[in-house]
């Protein structure tokens, strides 16, 4: 069952993560209140994408805790997907399925039901994809695929959104469409964490992930370039 409350707080306490046998970040702590947008900043390889994957439940931290509304998720066996909706670099669309089929499948996984028809139509129109709802995704351009992937944020209710480079491939019209969706989420008391070099909404706070880099050099068996590929 999804957790969805009007006033929430997300707390990361002393998070650390290792990739490829080397630490990516350590001692990472931040508190994000309802209605706030946190822009994850820092050089390539500092762990922005890794942090989002941890919060999305795709990676486990080496140490530290994630608390949502006062509950430490790891201690209560609560799946991260119960509170967060994640979109990474991959669009996670099945090419042979239509856009409608992809949306229905994702909604069934996340909510146990097909996408609500009215909401599906509204979200498709919001991202200028109405005419493509019944077309196989394999015929979409890269920009259309990215907008199709962004539709999840209009279809599935989760109080926390995790977005990795959400503006990639978007023209100004669709950047505005995304900004409108994000601003609506924040106004309703949601939380957004976004790793992006192109801030799409004005009401955000920068958070420098690189400030939590381990105090060590890169002289070990793995180079910084390797870490950039994984972080």
TrEMBL record:
According to UniProt, the name of this protein is Cytochrome c biogenesis ATP-binding export protein CcmA
State the PROSITE patterns in the record. Answer: ABC_TRANSPORTER_2
* Entry-linked PANTHER family: ABC TRANSPORTER I FAMILY MEMBER 1
Taxonomy, superkingdom = Bacteria
Q: What sequence ranges are listed for the domain ABC transporter?
A: 10-230
NCBIfam families documented for this protein: ccmA
One Pfam family named in its UniProt record: ABC_tran
